[in-house]
Amino acid sequence: MTAAARSMAMPLARCALIVVTVLGLVAPARALTLDQPPTSNAAVTTRGDGNGYEVTPANAYGPGVAQDINSGASNQSATCVDVRSDAHYWSGFDFSAIPSGSTINNVIVKQTIAIDSTNGMPTTCGRATWDDASDPGSDWTAYNQSAQLTTSLVTYNQPLTGHAWTLAELQSGLFKVETVNTTHNNGSRDFTLDTLIVTVDYTPPGQIDFTAAFKCNETINKEYAKYVKTLTNLLEQCNDARVKSGAGDTAPGGDIAACDPGGKLPAAFSKLESHIVARCDNAGLTPAAIGWPSTCPNFESGSCTNAVTNGNSIADCLDCVARAAIDQAMDLYYLDLSAPGGDSALIKCQSAIGKETSKFLVAKQKALGKCRKNIDRGTATAPCPVPGDAKAGPAIQKAESKKVAKICGACGGGSVDGVTCVSQTYDPSQIGFAGTCPDVTVPNGGPGCAAPVNTLNDLVKCVDCVTEFKVDCADALSRPDQSAYPSECGGGGGGGPTPTPTGGGGPTATRTLTPTPTTTPSGPAQTQTPTPIATLTPIPGGSCGDGTWNVGEECDPAGGATTSCQAVANTSAAFTCSGTCTCACPSFVEFTGNSGTIGVLDSGWTGQGHDATVVNDGTVTVGVTSCAGGSSRPCGVCTLLGPVLNLDADAGEIHNQRCSGNTRTKCTTNADCSGAGGTCEYYFGSNLPLVAGAVATCVSNQINGMISGTADVESGTAATTANLISRVYTGPNPNPCPKCIGDGPANDGIRAGTCDTGPNMGLTCDVNGTSPNLFWGSTSLDCPPIPGAQVASLPINLSNSTGTRTVTLTSASPNCRAPGFTTNKCFCDTCDNLAATPCMTNADCVAVGATVCGGRRCIGGTNNGTACSLTCAGGANVGLPCTTAAQCPGSSCTSNSQCPGGACNVPGAATAFNQCTDTVCSPTNTCLGGANQNGNCSVASECPGGSCIAGNEGTCSGGPFDQFCGPNATFQGCASDPDCAAQNN
Q1: Which domains does the chain have, with CATH numbers?
Q2: What's the chain's average pLDDT?
Q3: CA distance 11 to 684
Q4: Is the distance from CB of 754 to CB of 748 less than 8 angstroms?
Q5: pLDDT value of position 897
Q6: Exposed e or buried b per residue across 922-949, where buried means at least 16 C-beta atoms within 10 angstroms of its C-beta
Q7: I need a surface site. Which of 575, 627, 742, 834 has the fewest CB within 10 A?
């Protein structure tokens, strides 16, 4: 994958029209900057020696050898306001390029200045007026004083704070800057001013600053978590007091009126509302701009459907969903409790159920909130909790285990594994609990909760599952910019929530999908090629505009292509060299996946899915929020956030913003998908044909959530965090993906081709990408695969960085499971949960609420997906967990009693460290560089322009001897060449 910086040297109107959508939610665009020099100046005759910069002050209009000098400045003061200090006025700044209606965020004076000697601690000050006021006068900003000057030229940034700047003030012609040179009374000093620039940081109309939007969203998330905690604690404490008094059968459950006579909740809501209004409305942010829909998305088909137009209505929506979710949870915990009849142990049990589950609810909400904040900070990967910030998952699991232990300890014989109770003292009917768990489903691949509640373990599973559902829905509502509101949370309106639990089957609680980087190939290879660094050398001397790249310049407009930004400053051709010989830092960065020998995928550990080619032109664009070097070169390390629509979409680059219901439909918001169905999403490249072991599939790669990271503009290196949803479809050999036949140039926006198969067969299409495999040809998002052929939807971690990422076997790696290999370590397995989450260590499983990487789980039956162990089939230890026959005297360790109707095992092929018959995998050699990069080789001559080195693949000399037609028809098994005749090989 290659990374390239993209210029902002485009019409400003185009910038204002860019709309960014992530998961169908509008993401804010970054602020822009404009650097302008003065065109006129005048000495301040009433200060210092009265002549300011007396030696050619116009030299400060641009960089170069010629400079502006304030010579022999003496009798100076150390303060900016003292009239003994020399001063100079600068005016004539041209801010006409800033679009009408723009918001001015900041105005900065930048002085590149030096001093002949540091004696007297010399400094420079800067301030500005908006009405050409004289000095002294009241219409000036406060002075911004630099650090002590040095004998070398240094640029000092001096923000003009204390005034709310408007565009009218900047463009009125009355804007003026004053600079003041200060030094202690210590002889005569010469101040050398190389350049004076005013930088205006502004936001064009219709766009929003990232910082303001993030602060708004984080405020909503933070204050909502506080509100949920207040509501939960209020109801829990009210109910628990009734339970502990021995009257649990009269507990009010979710009745807020009965529990809040003092009005604590309205006061908490007032705080929630005021904070949102202050941080969002007062910053000029509309709900739509920060990802909110126009209508509250509702909860369990209830009445939370108010219009969302401002911060007040966001608060109303949050309040409505929180009340519905928490009220219903409290009803489950308390409303059916039986009269304890003075049984203190039963009272303790009843209290533990509501108290400990409420604590878990608050703990999970807190962990998810912190995780979402870390995503904003670029230190975590969406979604939360997994992969998240690597803290949320363990924190949630810890709270879960603590909750189970407390309930099991109060109502039974405790818990050994933090998942189930060893025994029960009271069953649900004695406690007073619903006979059937409510019919809800934990979002994002979680379990259904509906199931009979006959045992204490059934009760524990039920409160866990329902609480997970409530928390996950409430959390998703608070950050629509990071994740779409799950359909499981019950959109729609009017029907009301299901008040009475219904029957059904359901496994244990939280089952959150995790990225599976080794399961299914999902896009271009992750190796990045740094953008080449310019090899030209700047020449000492000269001046800006002489057609030569001089020391201190970033380019020179008079030199044409040889001294352009692209030639000497490592930019794309779109960057324009300014009249002051500077190049802007990028506002966008592109990542493009390449096909060919560099762009291949090696999936799995059997080798049958290795060396799979990808389609080309898989371009993804992200915005640049800030650079360490500011707005001009050197930019240094820049912070990235996206995705955004590719800048040249339908003009040479793929239009990658489509409706998930039918990717032929291009979109900007979810409203554009009302006909096509689904939501407006970003896609990573075109549909990808793949084959492994003669099985062909078609993979569609949707970007899931935000892309964040950094890029060093000068070196071309980058590190990004990204996640995909890879939807895998079966398809016929040799064409698993529909092809776009007869189209002209790819990605030109002209649908001149025709879809040959699929739901859009016969419709026109524009080629989006082409595979090097001749059988697979060109594919297009206009030609999606048949929806009914989807066999999997897999989360893929596409996080990458310049260089090589490795995984090493350690003592924490799971044991292999194939016969003869069980004492060896394998790189990966799956967790003992319903989702079969891919893992490399037990820690990966704990993070998603599971336990053991490669551990047994129930396959089928009523406990499908629940962690389990075999039990003794008979003898003295009948029914006890076991791992070997020795633990079952007089019997065998074979019983599946923990999995009624199913089996206690591990799904999938038993793992081994390779698939070689004799376990010997002999390394092969690979071409490094040249025309056959990454190709297999045995001698250097097979790598023209490169070298033959030890590679990262191998062959099984002792078998098995699977054979397939090559090089393209790898979907066809064969015994000899004639078997491949039909594939012309």
Answers
A1: 2-12+519-532+594-801 (no CATH), 32-203 (2.60.120.260), 210-489 (no CATH), 922-983 (no CATH)
A2: 81
A3: 27
A4: no
A5: 85
A6: eeebbbbebebebbbbeeeeebeebebe
A7: 742
